[in-house]
Amino acid sequence: MNSMNEEMTRRFVDALLAKGEQYVQEAEERIATLKETLADEERDLVILIENLAQLKAKTAGVGEPREEADESDDKKQDEENEDSDGSEEDTTPGMRKRSNSC
Prior knowledge:
Blueprint: H1 2-58, H2 67-81
């Protein structure tokens, strides 16, 4: 009777060990897959950062006001708004132009 219990216990332990080894193997495979995925994502991130740096370098200064261009635009606008008698018209958007003539 005792030997029968020992044999059943031994089989049970062997089955548990086999199942444990299977779980360990599956976990190691998942870890390897995750490491590969992480390495791929890291490479993609490095590429994105490099692209962002290149884009920043290309667009440096774009959109910043240029004083010379602003002054010449103001002069052009003033010239366009002058009447033949030299007065300026009200050119508010949505309003009709008014002149200073009587």
